[in-house]
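Q: What would this chain look like folded?
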Amino acid sequence: MDRIRIVGGKTLNGIIPISGAKNAALPLMIASLLTDRTVTLENLPRLADVSLLVRILSNHGVDYSIDGRRQGEDPDSGQTVHMTAREIVDTTAPYDLVSRMRASFWVVAPLLARCGEARVSLPGGCAIGTRPVDLLLMALERLGASIEIDAGYVVAKAPKGLRGGEIDFPKVTVGGTHVALMAAALAHGTTVIHNAAREPEVGDLADLLTKMGAKIRGAGTSTIEIDGVARLNGAKHRVLPDRIETGTYAMAAAMTGGDVFLQGAQPEHLQAALDALELAGAHVQSSPEGIRVWRNGNGLRPVDVETAPFPGFPTDLQAQFMALMTRAEGASRITEKIFENRFMHVQELARFGAHIRLEGDSAIIDGVPLLKGAPVMATDLRASVSLVIAALVAEGESMIQRVYHLDRGFEALERKLSRCGADITRISSGG
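A: My prediction, written as structure tokens:
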């Protein structure tokens, strides 16, 4: 397995282009199953999860092609792909594929909506908690599907098609809202989703579905209405910029000092995190072209945050902000309200010399004046990049193991950071 070597102490200065959002790209790709026409996605990031989802969708009959790179194009700019599901050749999503990426379970919605049946493996456990699929299945049942669990598979059937209905989520669920949107788009009649997720990635999926001919009102609010249509067409859509990548590099800039421009970032997608950065002592300036983040000499102040559904502080930035707070001048508290077991990075941050103690769903971080380089191990996608942020300022050399977690969600991370002055190198498994 590859490793990443970082020698800390370099400030970051320069421009970092923000890639297309992984959390938007995956449901957009899955939506290609809803039509026999071509769906074209621009700014699709080059990520391990994207490549795996291509394999999963190909198993169902999706043809996939990528445009060649044009002369003068930035090698880190997103790719343009064309996806066509002329015929669904298999309505089963097997365990060996679904178990490797939880989001692939969402294929249950378009397969059921288009074919009247789906057999999809339960995704299994997760490093950051159980993340059950019960709310996703409840949404499908509200639309008239029959659901059975058979030998670890969800068997969903709606032989006469799905019917519009009322879906009232007892708690906000991004995956549940994605599934409900895709299923309702081809259902007979009108569907109303109450307590819908308001995340930008949900709005991005609704935008694509609308371009495909779906009739959707209220995306981006807690109540979404969908009038089902008989069929959907192809469409072209650009994946929105990744707000988690944006927040990650913003925190890296604040951690190291220096001055970084996050090209293409959209501040309205992560305002809570940007507010926390400013409270911590970083300067943030937004423009139509992106976000500038800098910190010149002043120390970091402790800030308390609590994760919450959008527009609150994102759970996917919790580990990165914790890394930042390890150098704050005082004590801060981070409370995790979305996922259980999402403090697995605490022990690894402690290897750098961080002082962190856990109290239930909160972590109390006593800032230290110095972190020291250490060998550490990534435990999940977001936690792994918190170790990168700590290593960027740690004295000496750090070696991060299991970087395949990083490859799942961060495109060209080493190149983007090294362009801004970081001493960061990938060591291949054979090196």
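The chain has a mean pLDDT of 94.
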